Amino acid sequence: MTEHPTSHEGRQPLAARQQERTRPRQQDAAAAAAAAAIPVPAAAPNPGPGPAAVAEAQAATRREGDRLRFVGAATRRIARGIDLDEIVLGLCRASVPTFSDAILVYLRDPLPVGDERPVSPFVLRLRRSDRLRHTDEEGVEGGPESERLRPLLTDPTADLMPAAELCEVRAGGALAEVLRGVRPVFGDSAAARAALPELLGPGRPVPTGHRAILAPLRGRRRVIGAAVFVRSPERPPFEASDLLVAAQLATHTALGIDKAVLYGREAYIADELQRTMLPDSLPQPTGVRLASRYLPAAETARVGGDWYDAIPLPGSRVALVVGDVMGHSMTSAAIMGQLRTTAQTLAQLDLPPQEVLHHLDEQAQRLGSDRMATCLYAVYDPVAHRITIANAGHPPPVLLHLGGRAEVLRVPPGAPIGVGGVDFEAVELDAPAGATLLLYTDGLVESRLRDVWTGIEQLRERLAATAQLTGPDHSPPLEALCDDVLDMLGPGDRDDDIALLAARFDGIAPSDVAYWYLEPEDAAPGRARRLARRALARWGLDEMSDEVELLVSEVVTNAVRYAERPVTLRLLRTDILRCEVGDDSPQLPRQRRARETDEGGRGLFLVNRLARRWGATRLSTGKVVWFEMATRS
Question: For 114-198, where are the E strands, in sequence order?
Answer without folding.
Answer: 123-132, 144-146, 166-168, 185-186
